[in-house]
Amino acid sequence: MSVSSEIDVLVLGGAGVDTVVYVPELPLPYADSHMVPSIEARAGQTGDFVALGVHALGLRTHHLDLLGADHHGDLVRALHRERGVALTEVPQPAGTKRAVNLVSPDGRRLSLYDSTRGHDGDRLPPETVRALASVSRHVHVCITQPCAHALPVLRGTGATVSTDLHDWDGANAYHERFAYEADVVFLSTAALADPERTMRRIADRGRAGVVVATAGAEGAYQLLDGELTHIPPVAPPAPVVDSNGAGDAFAAGYLFGRLTGEPPARCGLFGAVAGAYACTVPATRADVVSREELLGATSP
């Protein structure tokens, strides 16, 4: 495989399809059946959204993951083709990853992931990972199982690394290899009893120079050089309809700031604006904030 140009952001993993179901409330009361406004499948899981996000902000982007030779894989391929995001796919015999997202009227989400779409032996080819990472400025690693085995390959490629631990509880050992191998670590405070303690443990035990914990409507927190600061929330530009993809959008906005040389506080502002925008987009659409919208919302 030959790569002809430099890549700003290489995204590993996280390609798949969500079936979005709008429900009257969460938790959903038990009943034999419920009438819902719509049930719609659309391409876009965490890696897809990060890739779309940084690409829309003008960064040269490449996405690498396993995909099945199935209808769901075709949806993912079409999404990347339509948005102009380069995609390298590895055959996935078990089929393309998929999930069902239950979305309540206030935008909260419950995701159900299909555990049959993969097996323990799944791998991203090391030679492919190395070739792409070696011509990339930065690699964002999703916490899917094949990406865990790709982490050692990234060492020595010259690329910085980020990851998103999502709603880690601070105890599950699976997440630790990602947390301690990344230069930039994103996570949510949702399942953390003591967010600051967890953030400091990540910084102390791993190589992260910055740890960012998103806290929904409360904004986010940034740990840098031992100092914890608050990133204020940003008012969404339209009514909140869905929180799906908000964390991915925050990561994309933050990475855009970091890779364009902005100071940490402004990187956090970019993340907050992108995350707020994502909350105004229905889960059935894979829309992300544009560079013009982001810079317009953050201009002095």
From TrEMBL:
Residues 182-287 form the Carbohydrate kinase PfkB domain. Coiled coil: none annotated. One of its GO terms (molecular function) is kinase activity. The keyword Kinase applies. The keyword Protease does not apply. SUPFAM superfamilies: Ribokinase-like (SSF53613). It comes from the Bacteria. Keywords: Kinase, Transferase. PANTHER family: RIBOKINASE, SUGAR KINASE. This is Adenosine kinase. It comes from Streptomyces apricus.
